[in-house]
Structures are given as C-alpha cells and as structure tokens.
Write a structure and sequence with these properties.
By secondary structure, the protein is an alpha/beta fold. It has helices at residues 7-17, 27-35, 54-67, 96-110, 117-131, 168-171, 175-182, 201-210, 251-263, 270-277, 304-315, 339-346, 367-376, 388-395, 411-422, 427-430; strands spanning 45-49, 72-75, 87-89, 92-93, 136-140, 157-160, 191-194, 213-216, 221-225, 230-235, 241-244, 287-291, 294-298, 327-331, 353-356, 381-385, 404-408.
C-alpha cells in the first residue's frame, strides 16, 4: 500500500503492480467494479472505438453535451502532459486529489485482484463520475474494444471511427480481425454510429449477431463536407446541422460526434454546434504554433493511417518564403509500431530530422535505432537526443526564421516537447482545457 497521497507517487506505484503493461480482459476490472458498486453505470454512455479519430469524437461529443447544458464525465487516453487529462468533468481535467482519493478507494477494494495501470485509471474515472454526479459519460476505448477495460461499461450509443492496421500484436494482422475486436463495444438493440464510407465485413457481422442498430452515414443518416470544410449533418427528419470543421479535424469524426449526441436525444442545432465546436482547443492534432519566428506543427500521428493524414495536410501548406528557411522534423516512435509506415508518408515533406528517445515508456525505439531507419530512407539525421525536449533544444537554435518544424511519431513525442514550448510563451495555445470559456 502506498504511504503518500501524492499523484506522482501513486502513478509510480501503479506501474509496479501488474506484471504486464497491456493485459486485455474484463474480469479483473469487473470484479473490483462490482465490489465498489460502480457497475452498471446508471447514466447514458457514449463509447468510442476505432484506430484513428477516437479523440476527436470524444472531445467533440463532450463539447456538444456541455454546450447543451449537460454535466459530462470524459475518460480518454493517453494524455499529453498531465495524467489528469485522462479524466475530465465538463472538459476540464480533474484535480489531483480526486484521482488520488479514487486510487485509494480502488486499492482498498481490489484485495487479491491484480489491476493494470489502465484498469486503475478506468475505475478511477468511474469513481469520480459517480462522485461528481455526471449526467452523461463519454468513454474512449484504449486498445481494441472487446477486451478493453472500458468495455465493462454497457454503452448507450457506440461509435466506431476509421479502422486501419495498428496494435497487430494484440488485435490481429488483418482489418477484419481488428474490426471484429473493435466491434466488441456493440450492444443489443443499441445504436452504433458509422461515419466512414465502408468498414470491414466482420464489423457488420458482429452488428448482425448482436442485433445492434446500425447508424450508417449515407443510409440511416447523412453528412457532407465541402472543399471549404463546411459540414452538414442530417439526422432522421431534423434540419441539417451546419458548421465549419475546425482545422486539423477530420469531417467524418466531427459528424460522428454530432450523430452520437443526437442519438442520445440531445437536440443539436447549428447554433449550438458552432458554440461548442467553433473554438474547440485540440492540442497535438495538426496543431500550428508560431514560436520565435518558427512555424511549429504538432501531430500525434503514430500509425500509417494517421501519418498519411498528416502528410496530406503538409502537402497543402504554402512554400517557405525565405531561402534560408527549411522544413525539418522532430520524431520519436514506439518500437512496436509500423515504423516505416509512420515515417514514409511524411518523409517527402521534410528535409531532415532530429530523432529522440522516449524515456517515459519502455516501448520506445532508441534514438540511434530510429536514426538508422531514417538514414535508410535517405532522410538526413541532423542530431540524436535521448528526450524530445533535448531534441528540441538542439534543433531550434540552428534554424533560420520562417523555418517549419514538424513534431510527430507518438503522443510521447508531442507531449514531451510541449513543456519546452510552455516555458516560452505559448501556454494559451497548449492549454488542456478543451472547452472554450
């Protein structure tokens, strides 16, 4: 049992408790949740699974519900800078004390049950949501769906975002196997929102087996987005909801959030959508910052599908104005990712890279190994560093004004550089309070 209530001490303790960092399954969490009377969750729940876009749907749905006057508990992962970002009330990260009190209650209740770091976090979110008397819960699946801890909670409305190859070690090597795992969040006679044009057949098979209510874009509901990013979403017989999609967000994910909230029975008008989403802060997703004469782009792209989206965005940017300016990358990746698939799409848009290790996770690829991969692709390696901050400190003094820096490869990479930016005057652009106040 931990002897201090400090959040960092608790998190260090939780890292040592379970033999495996990723250990999928519902039995352990469900056992402890029942002891704590946390299940079933008695408020409506939106659960979001998918390969890419989950965070967008979760944050947009949260913002819409808050704008509609609901008290909302949101659980997401991973965090960028502070663990507290994972558990939010009305879009605001909760205080340390709420988390440590929840951890203490879980530790007392679990007895002989070994819980993973993620299972502790999930139970803490459910504890805090009950204590804070939320009216709606919005939950992001951490990995897969069927055996993810979040799936111990029965969803009211499920959302499945774009499906691509990722986490093959746990989910399988084909899109069909991955889709079947993500479809594990579907529930009988409950709606599941599908905003993409098509999904692997295994997802539809699970929906049929479970008698889930398919809500397919283009069939049960409609969305359309113009070249100017003007989005129109039409649910049932309601008037279209219209909004300009914020930069960095995929229209399909914004549309899915609008549909999910509507299916909860919350009326969503164009005016409410603009109020909720028009100025939504979304750190780390194609996020542009001006920093001491440099253009900095932060993107947590960490799998091939996300890297392709980042590359598509980079292809739309104007050429640099100064002859001395350059486009360079700061990149760090996890060793269990498709590293070539992450680097390949972005490579044509950068002239060199500083590579970094990620010391806050044992899954990181070393800076030296990453440098060898980049060199094999013909990308000049400007420097190696053991942390994202040191990579940034080595890079920025060498760049001419007007240069562009693309930071990508992992949540750990982007989150690791953010503290250096915060110390130099861009805090307002990186605040982890999602909801405009």
């Amino acid at each position: 049992m931990i002897e201090t209530p400090d959040l960092k001490a608790w998190l260090d303790y939780l890292e040592t408790l379970h033999p495996r960092k990723i250990d999928l399954g519902l039995e352990r969490l469900s056992t402890v949740a029942r002891r704590m009377d946390l299940l079933p969750v008695v408020v409506p729940v939106i659960t979001v699974a998918g390969t890419n876009g989950k965070g967008t749907v979760v944050r947009c749905a949260t913002a819409l519900l808050v704008a509609a006057g609901r008290r909302v508990g949101t659980y997401s992962s991973p965090h960028l800078m502070r663990y507290n970002e994972r558990i939010c009330i009305d879009g605001m990260p909760v205080a340390d004390a709420l988390i440590t009190d929840a951890f203490a209650a879980i530790e007392q209740a679990r007895g002989e049950v070994s819980l993973s770091y993620f299972e502790f976090a999930t139970l803490a979110a459910l504890c805090i949501f009950r204590e804070q008397q939320v009216e709606v819960a919005v939950l992001e699946v951490g990995l897969g769906g069927r055996l993810d801890a979040v799936n111990a909670v029965d969803t009211t409305v499920a959302v499945v975002t774009r499906i691509a190859l990722d986490h093959q070690k746990w989910l399988g090597d084909t899109l069909d196997s991955i889709a079947a795992e993500k479809a594990g969040i579907l529930r009988s006679e409950r709606p599941v929102v599908l905003a993409e044009a098509d999904y692997p057949q295994s997802l539809y098979a699970v929906a049929t087996q479970r008698s889930a209510q398919l809500q397919r874009a283009g069939i049960e509901w409609q969305w359309d987005c113009s070249a100017s990013r003007s989005l129109a979403v039409t649910l049932a017989d309601a008037p279209p909801v219209r909004i300009t999609v914020p930069d960095g967000l995929q229209p399909s994910n914004v549309a899915a959030a609008l549909c999910a909230v509507g299916l909860l029975g919350v009326p969503v008008s164009s005016a409410l959508a603009v109020k909720a989403l028009g100025e939504l802060v979304f750190p780390g997703r194609q996020q542009h910052l001006q920093w001491q004469g440099l253009e900095v782009i932060l993107d947590v792209a960490h799998n091939p599908d996300a890297a392709q989206a980042l590359a598509a965005h980079l292809s739309t940017l104007p050429a640099l104005e100064s002859a001395d300016a350059v486009v360079v990358a700061v990149v760090g990746v996890l060793a269990d990712k498709d590293i070539d698939g992450v680097l390949g799409p972005v490579a044509p848009y950068v002239g060199g890279a500083v590579v970094c290790g990620l010391p806050d996770t044992p899954r990181a690829l070393s800076a030296h190994a990453l440098a060898e991969v980049l060199a094999a692709r013909g990308i000049p390696v400007l420097a190696e560093a053991d942390t994202p901050v040191r990579a940034w400190e080595r890079l920025w003094p060498t760049l001419a004004p007007g240069s562009r820096v693309v930071v990508f490869g992992s949540f750990h990479t982007v989150g690791g550089i953010m503290p250096a930016l915060l110390e130099t005057g861009v805090a307002g652009d990186l605040e982890q309070t999602w909801i405009p106040r």
